[in-house]
Amino acid sequence: MEEVASVLKRHLMVSNAVKTRCSEICNQLASEPQSIRIINDIVMIRKEICSRSIEIEMLMEKYDDLRLENQCLVEERIYEQATKDAKQGEKLDTFFDTLPKLQV
Fold it and tell me: Could you count the other beta carbons within 10 Å of the beta carbon of residue 85?
């Protein structure tokens, strides 16, 4: 019974560490130049949409493309970082509260 409790406790600690790490990765990605450029373009296009009614369809297509580009970038980077972190599984299991910084 102690073994089961130990395994469950370890799983919970790793699970919390992974959640924390995902938040850290997302916060770091949001401040990268490529992400900032994409978000700035989205905001600019949104302002254009609000200020005129002509060519709305083309602007919305560009807007949607930028949103998709940003989402793909974020998902790719999270997957890459999670894979790197998983390869360091022992560190993640043992030192879950001192996770390494995002490696870009």
Answer: 20
- Distance between CA atoms of residues 50 and 27, nearest Å: 29
pLDDT in tens, 57-91: 778 788 889 988 998 888 888 877 877 776 676 45
Residue 56's contacts (CB-CB under 8 Å, 6 or more residues apart) are 49
Angle of helix 56-87 relative to helix 33-51, nearest 10 degrees, comes to: 160
Distance CA 59, CA 41 (A): 11
- Round to whole Å and give the CA distance between 97 and 80: 20
pLDDT tens digits along 2-32: 565 555 555 555 566 667 777 788 888 888 8
What is the DSSP code (8-state) at residue 31? T
Cα angle 71, 75, 80; round to 5: 150
Q: Where are the domains of the chain?
A: 2-93
